[in-house]
Every structure is written in structure tokens, then in C-alpha cells.
Write a structure and sequence with these properties.
Radius of gyration of chain A: 23 Å
Strand content of chain A: 5-15%
CATH architecture of chain C: 3-Layer(aba) Sandwich
Helix content of chain A: 40-55%
Order of helices and strands of chain C: EHEHEHEHEH
Number of strands of chain C: 5
Structural class of chain C: alpha/beta
CATH topology of the largest domain in chain A: Rossmann fold
Chains: A alpha/beta (331), B alpha/beta (559), C alpha/beta (134)
Strand order of the largest sheet of chain C: 2-1-3-4-5
Distance between the termini of chain A: 61 Å
Helix content of chain C: 40-55%
Radius of gyration of chain C: 14 Å
CATH architecture of the largest domain in chain A: 3-Layer(aba) Sandwich
CATH superfamily of the largest domain in chain A: P-loop containing nucleotide triphosphate hydrolases
Structural class of chain A: alpha/beta
CATH class of chain C: Alpha Beta
Number of domains of chain C: 1
Oligomer: heterotrimer
Number of strands of chain A: 8
Largest sheet of chain A: 7 strands, parallel
Shape of chain A: globular
């Protein structure tokens, strides 16, 4: 097999990569995801063509500490969805090594029931330096799967810490998975995680300490609900994913949350807010990209730094001046 | 063992020696390395003296062979009475071919049989199953039905040999076939002897031949143990195996520790099923690896025997010394063999055999020098068996019991490995036992970390492996390798097709229905499994009944 | 840009063989060499392996076999990759593979066979050289 640049190949099918995705080409979807992951500028064009076809999938986020059994749970949820003849896309995020940039993507292995089914598309993603439990491009990957026509997209976060609130901004329904014996106690959890949960799952519920954990979480949910008078009260469910116990009640709870979102009009509200955030951050990126290119491109920036270092100028006024030059009508 | 004053003197003398002759010599001729370690990474001192075993107490640490805590061996006379059983694991291709190899080995003086099954059999698939593609008869013999089992033991009376079977997830089925065959031969169950591996935990940890989730798997394991205890008193109903843990890359201490942890789980499960500890524990057996670092292996075996005896006595309250004895089979280290300069493997195996003899094993399989290349040829198998015979008959290692006892180094290393075992057992207990530690990937991760460390040592040349990273040479490709006929799956498939048509459909169906029924209760499945295989149900068909009830296990994998 | 093209590898154990020490070790070595490695685990059929390669858009498929089934499985994986239009995926194999089988495997489209004792850095080097993504 000769060395062959994969980029050449991509460019061959580039023209209609988006069209192919919309027509149901798994290969085109996989390749487009790669382009998106690589933050290839060409990807935006395709995402643009796919966007009108998105918004149909229900996006389920699954987060929780390592060892709580997120992947196994994802696998079980997927198989119940498949029994209901729903198509599923799974995005499994694992951390990249900060030292080598490499990553071991081991979630797929725990989704063996799901893999082997052509109507389940599993994609492993490395964080590539992004913090917050997802890769920078995860939201776009979800859109591709959505546009492809998946009924459900399940996103499994890294789960390295408890600071994974990004998932709540991305998913329609967010499940926080806890397990007894991992030092997961409510006291030790950051407030943020409690805020994001639409559902709690106490997995590995056959272990000692499970009932205590359930009680603890329920009390906390009650307290929160009383303070906030929230319309949705996160249910707390028990599962033993390895032995496939509790999956169906969990799915019912997810469906309940989905109906709640739709009937209360929250889904529209939440998605609007999400769209706002996403568009805003795209705008910010685009602006900073363009502006910085202009500023950094002509070498004057280095001169400016020299001036600031020498205290001939101050950084505050200088930045203001630059922005005013680029956007003269701002003031 | 040493009085305090004497120890003081030795300490002073040792310091003088360190500062004097040693320092002087090192200044002129530096040592080869700054630190020396065993293959498991245990640090090795320049010299061991009574100081390293200062609190050594003969009675509590060693005792006498055949007596608690069995550090020196499980029998009073050990190999002076009878050598270890020389038991070569063999099996390939068809039952007929394997039967011929067995009869050859018995003629050559081998004293027990050991059956290697092919991977479809081990995974509970018949030869005609889609997943069996490419695997039939490859790493062992293909057994689908009691008819194959009959051919496998053709002209071998089951009351005259003992047979060891490497079978785990479908152990009840293959053992059922063996018992059915004994009945056919007119051999009463009381005269049938042997071992079945039946160790599902290590399959989940590292060997990969599991079928069902852990809980139903454990139920089958215990059903088999219970049935043998009640009906087949000479059968070793489980062989708790560290061998594969070591092959997967663990250290010597981890091999022993995780095996003992699994052993604790089996004993507890049997007790939970209402069995008295001293009823079944005397029939528990173990299976270990032997690597080339002779003294470390000896220390491992001695430490393991001592620790297990204490576990049985102190943790489980056993009162029968036989329950406290860790009896074990050894296989020389498969992963220690090199494809490069394969004849060097003969020397490795010889050293591993010596370690096994010094360590006090009950039986041994020696690997063939060509196993890193292919299935062993007859010539290589013969050399492997002869290696055991040379060590047994010529080396003198078998003539006195536990000859390395009292060596400062060996005793210090024995203590250190025992302490490591104890650390692991405590950690695993704190996690809620082996099943949980496995589910969380703890055990797997420990093993993989050791494997990784070892590989890095080889690649950085920190550790020398002859023929791999030093003393390498250009070699012509090896010739004369044994191959299995790739057509075998077709042959077996044809045979099965005929078999399935010709059997009595009514009794076959009834037996499988009965099996399904009993499996859903708490009743022991062994009797109905035996009935099913007699009614000519295949391995795959029996296993499918359980797949339908319990589903298949998908393990967590940790890299 | 934080994102950067990375070599994506599928490490798979075809067949029923459970000896995954080598496969897991290499997965780790590849990750340390900066690759993104998807480990698929045991008992993979050629169809499952190819499906993973397809969905993950893999650059490399690594196959490990110690049970003697390489002559069936490795070419089958290559064939299925081609059928799915993935003919540019680099397929490499390792395990216990007799020298005499290597030419046949290479003819079938397996780019390289790495036997026992191969230095892992040589395997990494081979992959990096073969998968040149600009």
C-alpha cells in the first residue's frame, strides 16, 4: 500500500461531502467529522449546508466521575432505543494527553452491543486540549449526526472531574451518573454539577452505600427545588448497568423530561439560548481571527510591544486605539 | 534464629565490608548497574546476611513439609516419594490427531493428560458457528459433542490416567462429557481423577474466554465444585490460575496476589452457597507460571503457600490441614520464549523447570522451544518432556525438600513477596472484593502497568533479553513448523451436520428444555448438563441455552 | 489552533483469541506517540473492525493475533475495507505469525507484519512514515 495523502482523497469528495451526509453516507459523515475535529476551515461550509436539517434529534448528555459506568450505561440506553427502532449517534469523549497530544479512546469497547448495528454510529473524540468535558468541536459533531438523521444523539463526557458543565449547554437532557464507593458525595460536589442535572442515576446500585447515596441526592434535589421553585425536579434513579438492571425506567424518565421540555415550551427557550451562545462564540472566534490576522500580520504589533515594554505606551490605551482603528465607527 | 549480640557483630562487620573491600573494588571496577532488580522489578541487594532476616522464626515462617503453614511443601516427603506429575498440555486439530499425540506422550513416560481445547470450544461455540471461522482446531482440539470426546480418549482408560482440562466458561459442559464417557467405559465416578480449570475470574481479568456476566458465571463455577464434591471425590474442581495473569504482564507478586484474591472469592461463594469450608477446600487447586529468574519464582511459590494456609485458617476458620494446602500445577512461561534463536528457549525452560522443582509444585508442563513460532512439533514436545526428566533424575533438585530454605536471600524475598500479597489483598478487600476490583478495572490496570514497564525496560536496554536486545543475529527463517489443516472447519461442519440429523431429536430436545428449566432455578445444573450431553447436545447448544437466559458479558477494558 | 491533525488508529483483536497484552501495550505506545487510538477489544469480527474504521475515520487498523487465524482474518479485513471504500487505510498486523505466511499477507494488502520482539518505536516510525498527512 503506497503512501497517499488522505487530504487528496477528501478533496476529491469534498464537493458534495455535506450532500452525501444528508443522503445518508456513513463514510461522508465520518470524514466530515474528521474535518470538523481538525478545525479545517472547509468544514464550516459543509456545516452550513447541514444546519437547516438539524434540530430534530434529542441530545442526551451523560456525565459523571470516572468509574461510574457511563459507557456501559450509554450502551444499555442505546439498546433500549434500538428496540424502539430509533436510530442513535454516540459521541464518546476521552481526554487527550497534555504531554503527547495522543489519546486512548476506550469507550467504544464498552458499547459492543451497540457497535455492530448499522443504525448506531459511534464516534470517539479526544478533547485535544479542551477543558470542560467535551472537545471544542463536539457541538458541531452532534449537528452532523443530527443532520444525518439520527433520532437520538448521546454524548458521553470525559468525566475526569466534576467541572463538566459544558455538557448542559450542549444537551437537551443531561444525566449525572454517580456510583457508591467512589467518594462521590454531594458535599464534595461542586454546585455547578448539581445545577446541570436533569436526571440523576445512581449506577452500580448493587454496591453498599447505594441507598445512602440515593437518599443524599434526593434530599439535595428537594432542597434545591424548594429554594428555586423549579418546574422540573430531577428524579434519582438506580441502575446496575453491567447486569442491565434499571435501564427501562431510566429511559422512561428521560422521555418524561423530554415531554416536559416540549410541553412547557422550555425546549424552544433552551435551544434559542443555546443557538445564541453558539452563534456568539462563532462570532467571537471569527472576529478575533480576522482582527488578530490584521494586527499580527503587519509586524506593527511587535513594535507596539516594544513600546509597551519600554513604558513609552500603556497596554490599556493601546488596545483601545487598535480596536478604534479597525472599527472606526464604534464610538 | 540469631541472637541479638551476634546480629550486632554481623552488622558491624557488614558496615566494615561495605566501606572497605566493596568500596575499593567499586572504585576500580564499577558494578554493572546502579540498581539490580528481578524480572518483576524487586530490588536485589548486593549481599544478603542474617540482618535481612533478623526476626526470622523457623516455626512460624517455615515449619515442616506437610505441616502448617506449608512453606516448605504440602507433603511430608515431596519428590523423594514421587516426582511431580509431568503433564504436557496438548491438543490440536481433530480429536483423532490429539488422541494419537496423547498415546504417544503416555508411551514416552508422561503421567497425566492435559487437554487444550480450541478457542470456539473454550468460548462455547460449535465448530460450524460463524465466529469459529478460522479458529477450529487452531490452539487446541475441537470438541463439539460427546462423540468427539469419545474419540479423544480412544483406548485411554479413564480410571488409569488423570486428566486436566483447560476449560472455563463452558467447564460444566466439557466435564459433563468426560463424566458421560467414564460412564460409557464402565468407570465409576469414584475412580475418575483430574482437574478442570473452571476459573472464570481470571478469564475476565486477562484471558478473555468468558461468556456470561460475572454472577451467573460464578454460579456455574460453584455448581461444578459442589457436584464434584458430592459425586466425584478425586476431581479437582477448580484450578485457580495465576498463569495467565503473569502471561498478561504481571509481576510475580501480583500473580500470586490476584490468584489468591480470586481464590478467596471462590471460597466465599461456596460458603455462601451453604458448603462447609472443609468439605470443598481440600479439592481446590492452583495453577502458576514459572519465569527464568529462579530464586524469585521459588520465593513466590513459598510465599503463596504460606499466605494461602493463613487465609484458610484465619479468614475462613478451616480446621482441616488439607484445606490449607496450596497444591498447584505449573506451566513454564509462554511469554518468556523468543521467536529469535528458538533453541535458547530450551535453556529458559530448563531454568524454569528447576525453579518449579525447588518451589515444590505438584505437576508441571514444560513449553516447547518452538511455541513462539507455531504449535509445538513432536520433536520439540519431546525435548520439553525430557527437560523435566533431566531435572528430576539428574539435577538432584528432587532429592531433598525445599533445598533453598534458610538462604538469606530466598527467605528475605519470600517475606517481601508475602508482604506484597498482603497489601493487595487488603486493597481488594477495601474495594469490596475481587468482583468489584475487576469491574472497576483495578486488577487489569495493575497488570497492564507492569507489562508496560517491562516492555520499556527491554526497549531501553535496561533489561537484557538474549536474542532480543542483545546477542542478536541474523537467522534463516525457521522451517518444519507444524500447521493445522485449514480445511478442518469444513470437516467438522460436515460432521456436525450429520450428527445433528442422526441424533434422537426427541430426547435431545427434552434434555435441553429440562436444562433451561433447571438453569432458571437455584438447583445445581451439573446433572442436567450431563443428561443433555448424553442426549447429544453440543457444547454450543448447551451454552446457547444459558446465553438466552443470562445474556453475554461485555467486559470493561482498560488500556 | 488547539486542534491539529492526528493519526487515528484502530487496535483490534480479531477472532476468539484473548491474549491482548500486545494489543493493549501498543495502544498505549501509540497514544504516547501522539496518536488517537481506539481500542476495540476482543472477539472482533472483520465486519466489526471495518465498521469501527469507517465510523472513526481511521488512518490505521492494527490487528493482533496469537491463535493462528491471521491468514483468514487479516486479508478479510483488507477486503472489507476495500468494499467499503476505505482502501487508503493502512493495515498492519502482529502476533505469532510464521515467516512463511508473511508474503501472502502482504500480497493481500497488509502493509507490514510485526513479530514478537519488534521494538515498539519501529512500529511507530513505520506508521508515521506511511500515514503522511500534510
Amino acid at each position: 500500500m503506497d503512501t497517499k495523502s488522505r487530504d487528496l482523497d477528501i478533496s476529491v469528495i469534498m464537493e458534495d461531502l455535506a450532500a452525501e451526509v444528508l443522503q445518508g453516507s456513513v463514510r461522508a459523515m465520518a470524514r466530515l467529522i474528521t474535518l470538523v475535529e481538525n478545525e479545517d476551515p472547509r468544514a464550516f461550509e459543509f456545516l452550513g449546508s447541514i444546519y437547516p436539517h438539524t434540530g430534530r434529534a434529542h441530545v442526551l448528555g451523560i456525565t459523571g466521575s470516572p468509574g461510574t459506568g457511563k459507557s456501559t450505561l450509554t450502551d444499555k440506553i442505546t439498546s433500549v432505543l434500538r428496540q424502539q427502532e430509533k436510530t442513535v449517534g454516540v459521541v464518546a469523549v476521552d481526554p487527550s494527553s497534555p504531554f503527547t497530544g495522543g489519546a486512548l479512546l476506550g469507550d467504544r469497547i464498552r458499547m459492543q452491543r451497540a457497535s455492530g448495528d448499522p443504525d448506531v454510529f459511534i464516534r470517539s473524540m479526544a478533547t485535544r486540549g479542551n477543558l470542560g468535558g467535551l472537545a471544542r468541536t463536539t457541538a458541531d459533531v452532534i449537528k452532523i449526526m443530527d443532520g444525518f438523521g439520527k433520532d437520538w444523539v448521546i454524548v458521553e463526557t470525559v468525566g475526569v472531574g466534576q467541572d463538566e458543565v459544558e455538557i448542559a449547554k450542549t444537551a437537551d437532557t443531561t444525566i449525572v451518573v454517580l456510583a457508591p464507593g467512589l467518594g462521590d458525595s454531594i458535599q464534595s460536589m461542586k454546585a455547578g454539577v448539581m445545577e446541570i442535572a436533569d436526571l440523576y442515576v445512581i449506577n452500580k446500585a448493587d454496591r453498599s452505600g447505594a441507598d445512602a447515596l440515593v437518599t443524599e441526592v434526593r434530599i439535595r434535589v428537594e432542597q434545591d427545588a424548594q429554594i428555586k421553585e423549579a418546574a422540573w425536579r430531577a428524579p434519582v434513579l438506580k441502575t446496575v448497568a453491567v447486569e442491565d438492571q434499571g435501564t427501562e425506567p431510566l429511559l422512561e424518565a428521560i422521555e418524561n423530561h423530554r415531554s416536559f421540555l416540549e410541553q412547557s415550551g422550555r425546549l424552544k427557550k433552551v435551544r434559542r439560548e443555546k443557538t445564541r451562545q453558539e452563534t456568539l462564540s462563532l462570532l467571537k472566534e471569527e472576529i478575533s481571527h480576522n482582527v488578530l490576522e490584521k494586527i499580527l500580520g503587519n509586524g506593527r504589533f511587535d513594535d507596539l510591544i516594544d513600546d509597551i515594554v519600554a513604558h513609552r505606551k500603556d497596554p490599556y490605551t493601546s488596545v483601545k486605539e487598535i480596536v478604534t482603528t479597525i472599527f472606526p465607527d464604534e464610538e | 534464629m540469631f541472637d541479638k549480640k551476634k546480629l550486632e557483630t554481623i552488622k558491624t562487620e557488614k558496615e566494615q565490608w561495605d566501606c572497605g573491600p566493596v568500596e575499593k573494588t567499586c572504585a576500580k571496577f564499577p558494578e554493572r548497574k546502579t540498581t539490580f532488580t528481578t524480572i518483576s522489578g524487586e530490588e536485589v541487594e548486593r549481599l544478603y546476611t542474617p540482618l535481612e532476616v533478623a526476626d526470622f522464626d523457623y516455626d512460624t515462617k517455615l515449619g515442616f513439609p506437610g505441616e502448617y503453614p506449608f512453606t516448605r511443601g504440602v507433603q511430608p516427603t515431596m519428590y523423594r516419594g514421587r516426582f511431580w506429575t509431568m503433564r504436557q498440555y496438548a491438543g490440536f486439530g481433530t480429536a483423532r490427531e490429539t488422541n494419537e499425540r496423547y498415546r504417544y506422550l503416555l508411551e514416552q513416560g508422561q503421567t497425566g493428560l492435559s487437554v487444550a481445547f480450541d478457542l470456539p470450544t473454550q468460548s462455547g461455540y460449535d465448530s460450524d458457528h460463524a465466529l469459529s471461522m478460522g479458529e477450529v482446531g487452531k490452539v487446541g482440539v475441537a470438541i463439539d459433542s460427546v462423540d468427539d470426546m469419545r474419540v479423544l480418549f480412544d483406548q485411554i482408560p479413564l480410571d488409569k490416567v488423570t486428566t486436566s482440562m483447560t476449560i472455563n466458561a463452558p467447564a460444566t459442559v466439557l466435564l459433563g462429557m468426560y463424566f458421560a464417557l467414564a460412564e460409557e467405559q464402565g468407570v465409576p465416578y469414584s475412580k475418575v481423577g483430574g482437574t478442570v480449570q473452571n476459573d472464570i475470574l481470571k478469564e475476565i481479568i486477562c484471558r478473555g474466554q468468558y461468556i456470561y456476566p460475572p454472577l451467573p458465571s460464578m454460579r456455574l463455577t460453584v455448581d461444578l465444585i459442589k457436584y464434584c464434591y458430592e459425586h466425584v471425590p478425586r476431581w479437582n474442581s477448580i484450578s485457580i490460575s495465576g498463569y495467565h495473569i503473569r502471561e498478561a504482564g504481571s509481576t510475580a507478586a501480583q500473580e500470586m496476589a490476584f490468584t489468591i484474591a480470586n481464590g478467596i472469592t471462590y471460597v466465599q461463594s461456596c460458603i455462601d452457597r451453604g458448603m462447609e469450608v472443609d468439605s470443598f477446600a481440600p479439592r481446590l487447586s492452583f495453577f502458576y507460571n514459572a519465569f527464568t529468574n529462579v530464586l524469585e519464582e521459588v520465593a513466590k511459590f513459598r510465599a503463596g503457600r504460606r499466605y494461602w494456609a493463613r487465609v484458610m485458617k484465619e479468614r475462613f476458620g478451616s480446621e482441616n490441614p488439607r484445606s490449607m494446602m496450596m497444591r498447584y500445577h505449573v506451566q513454564t512461561g509462554g511469554v518468556t520464549l523468543t521467536a529469535q534463536q528458538p533453541l535458547n528457549n530450551i535453556v529458559r525452560v530448563a531454568l524454569q523447570t528447576l525453579a518449579t522443582a525447588y518451589g515444590g509444585a505438584q505437576s508441571l508442563h514444560t513449553n516447547s522451544y518452538d511455541e513462539a513460532l507455531c504449535l509445538p512439533t513432536e520433536e520439540a514436545v519431546t525435548v520439553a518432556l525430557r527437560t523435566q526428566q533431566v531435572v528430576a533424575e539428574e539435577s538432584g533438585a528432587a532429592d531433598t525438600i525445599d533445598p533453598l530454605a534458610g538462604s538469606y536471600y530466598v527467605e528475605a524475598l519470600t517475606d517481601r513477596i508475602e508482604a506484597e500479597i498482603d497489601d493487595y489483598i487488603k486493597k481488594i478487600d477495601a474495594m469490596g472484593g475481587t468482583l468489584k476490583a475487576i469491574e472497576d478495572g483495578y486488577v487489569q490496570k495493575e497488570i497492564q502497568d507492569s507489562a508496560y514497564r517491562f516492555q520499556k525496560e527491554i526497549e531501553s536496554n535496561e533489561r537484557v533479553y538474549v536474542g532480543i536486545n542483545r546477542y542478536t543475529m541474523e537467522e534463516p527463517p525457521p522451517t518444519n513448523l507444524l500447521k493445522v489443516d485449514p480445511k478442518q472447519r469444513d470437516i467438522e461442519t460436515e460432521k456436525l451436520k450429520k450428527f445433528r440429523v442422526e441424533r434422537d431429536q426427541k430426547s435431545w430436545k427434552a434434555a435441553l428444555d429440562r436444562l433451561d428449566e433447571v438453569s432458571r432455578t437455584d438447583e445445581n445444573v451439573m446433572p442436567v448438563v450431563i443428561e443433555a450431553v448424553k442426549a447429544r447436545a453440543t457444547v454450543g447448544e448447551v451454552c446457547d441455552v444459558w446465553r438466552n437466559i443470562w445474556g453475554e458479558y461485555r467486559p470493561k477494558e482498560f488500556v | 489552533m488547539t486542534g491539529k491533525k492526528r493519526i487515528k488508529v484502530i487496535m483490534a483483536k480479531p477472532g476468539l483469541d484473548g491474549h491482548d497484552r500486545g494489543a493493549k501495550l501498543l495502544a498505549r505506545v501509540f497514544a504516547e506517540a501522539g496518536m488517537e487510538v481506539v481500542y476495540t477489544g476482543l472477539r472482533q469480527t472483520p465486519e466489526m473492525i471495518v465498521e469501527a474504521a469507517l465510523q472513526e475515520d481511521a488512518d490505521v487498523v492494527g490487528l493482533s493475533s496469537l491463535s493462528g487465524v491471521h491468514n483468514y482474518f487479516f486479508p478479510r479485513v483488507v477486503e472489507l475495507l476495500k468494499e467499503n471504500g476505505l482502501d487508503d487505510v493502512l493495515v498492519v498486523g502482529g502476533g505469532i505469525i510464521p515467516d512463511e505466511d508473511i508474503p501472502g499477507l502482504k500480497d493481500s494488502g497488509v502493509a507490514a507484519i510485526f513479530g514478537p520482539g519488534t521494538r515498539t518505536e519501529d512500529i511507530v516510525k513505520f506508521i508515521v512514515e506511511k500515514v503522511s498527512r500534510n
